[in-house]
Amino acid sequence: MMNTVYNSRRGATLSFLCKISFAVVIFILLTRLTELQIIKGAYYRDLSEGNRLRTLSITAPRGKIYARGGEILADNKEVKKTVVFDAKKGYTKQLVTGETPKDEMIQEWDRIYTTKQMVAHALGYLGSVREEEVNKPDPHCIEKGIRRGDTMVGRSGLEEQYDCVLRGIDGEELVEVDIQGNRIRTMGRKPPIPGSNINTTIDYGLQKRLSEAFGELPGAAVATDINGQILAFYSNPSFDPSVFITSNPTNDAIVRDLFNDTKLPLFNRAITGAYHPGSIFKIVTAAAALEDKKITPEFSYNDTGTVSVNGFDYTTWYFTQYGRTEGELVLSRALARSTDTFFYKVGEYVGIDRLVYWADKFGVGRKTNVDLPGEVSGLLPSPEWKQKVLNERWFLGNTYHFSIGQGDLLTTPLQANVLSATMANGGYVCEPTFIFQKTPKCVKLEIADETRDAIYQGLKEACQTGGTAYPFFDFTPPVACKTGTAETGEKSPTHAWFTVIAPAENPEIVLTVLVEKGGEGSKVAAPIARDALDYWFHVRTP
């Protein structure tokens, strides 16, 4: 009897525990189901869709870059690609190599530069985004979206300066894939929006002629109209921007060679190279002396070939090379003959502080604000600068060197062009640009017309019989010019400079040529300028 009661109670207890356990299990299952379907339902649904749908980007074509006559400088080439999906790694784009269904292809664009080395330093090139830029928008054009890992962006030249303008808005394609990542079908497509085109002021024919005229000579040339619109812009040696576009073993090797080349083909000498301006700077010294009333245009000086100060002799090129002197000469003749002794003494009369003041007015030692990245400011030295940087005093000999564009004074070829243009446009310092502007950005120098006229007369005489620029003695139309031969501080040849304003009456073009360690400006740089102006006046169809 007792056993029967015990067993009955035990069975009831077990039954109760089973019911409790069952209830707990049901509760857990309901809770989990609620979590999966209600609380995290959207999450797992999105995850499931993500495993089934892929969004791939379609790169937009960049805007084209044109020369002023409509010639294409930077273009795009259509490239058909197919997309290979991976269940874990997403997708990769590959060039179409065989028969591929149309709906499995996407159309993208590669940049091409048909002009190759001819305009490379003006155009720049494209490069992949840096790691820190990936999946972030360009702060200057947020509306263009983020920069993906395969995005190509401008890395120098106009491609970088106007990257936001040239970049388009990428498109997208929604693709359904199976669990292994195989394409099932295209669900939808948003086409890319091309970037905007740029029309530059570059004259295609002049640019081509300048690039050919340099040959193997290292240097740079800049041609502008009198208000700073850039007609030609060349740095030599140059490079083909196309090699940066496609990643393959051949191009990778070429790019490595470009960066390691001791001739520095990637170095933009026109705006990044800083050189002693040599005798081109005598324009500034003359203007300072006339404006500060230290001399008049009729001021006469007797050149004996040498100026001696404290046991140091400062000679003129004519005496050093030929042992000859100029005798009595006035300002215009001193400019035409580039007589150093004349400008040593004139610089002494003005004094270094006022020379620095006027050089700054002309834009020396300051960036021109050209619309290209990478421009340097050059160097405008002063007694304060020398004491602070070199811990040395300024001596009269330093003023002599400064007065003829030597010493520590440094300018870029573009700065020298801007300086020269002030004599052609009535005394304005204008910002050079590659994009046409109805109203140029210019600042008045505030020099008297009589000052400009006196200097300009010397520049005209420099290109006439008896001047230093003999390649232009018989040039039609007559031009105004200045030669320059700048010491390098080495035993190697001097830098050769030549700047020319043409025609001398009613000027329309200002051309400045620098040949690195080329020797004399009249013998090396002037022939390049003449070749270019032959094209401009005698071949080109306006």
Task: Walk me through this protein's architecture.
By secondary structure, the chain is an alpha+beta fold. The chain folds into two domains: 51-199, Penicillin-binding protein 2a (Domain 2) (Alpha-Beta Complex), CATH 3.90.1310.10; 212-538, DD-peptidase/beta-lactamase superfamily (Beta-lactamase, 3-Layer(aba) Sandwich), CATH 3.40.710.10. Helices cover 35% and strands 22% of the residues. It has helices spanning 2-39, 41-52, 120-123, 157-161, 163-166, 204-214, 249-260, 282-291, 317-322, 331-337, 340-350, 352-361, 383-390, 396-403, 413-421, 449-462, 521-538, and strands at residues 53-58, 65-66, 72-86, 90-95, 105-112, 126-128, 136-137, 146-147, 152-154, 171-177, 183-190, 198-199, 219-224, 230-236, 301-303, 306-309, 312-315, 327-329, 428-430, 442-444, 480-486, 495-502, 509-515. Strands 2, 3, 4, 5 and 12 form a five-stranded mixed β-sheet that branches. Strands 14-13-23-22-21 form a five-stranded antiparallel β-sheet, sandwiched between helices. A hairpin with a 2-residue loop joins strand 16 (306-309) and strand 17. It is elongated, with a radius of gyration of 35 Å. 41% of the residues are buried. The model is unreliable at 1-6 (pLDDT under 50).
SSE topology:
Layout: H1 2-39, H2 41-52, E1 53-58, E2 65-66, E3 72-86, E4 90-95, E5 105-112, H3 120-123, E6 126-128, E7 136-137, E8 146-147, E9 152-154, H4 157-161, H5 163-166, E10 171-177, E11 183-190, E12 198-199, H6 204-214, E13 219-224, E14 230-236, H7 249-260, H8 282-291, E15 301-303, E16 306-309, E17 312-315, H9 317-322, E18 327-329, H10 331-337, H11 340-350, H12 352-361, H13 383-390, H14 396-403, H15 413-421, E19 428-430, E20 442-444, H16 449-462, E21 480-486, E22 495-502, E23 509-515, H17 521-538
Parallel strand pairs: 2-12
Antiparallel strand pairs: 1-10, 2-3, 3-4, 3-5, 6-9, 7-8, 10-11, 13-14, 13-23, 15-18, 16-17, 19-20, 21-22, 22-23
Helix pairs in contact: 6-17, 8-11, 8-12, 10-16, 11-14
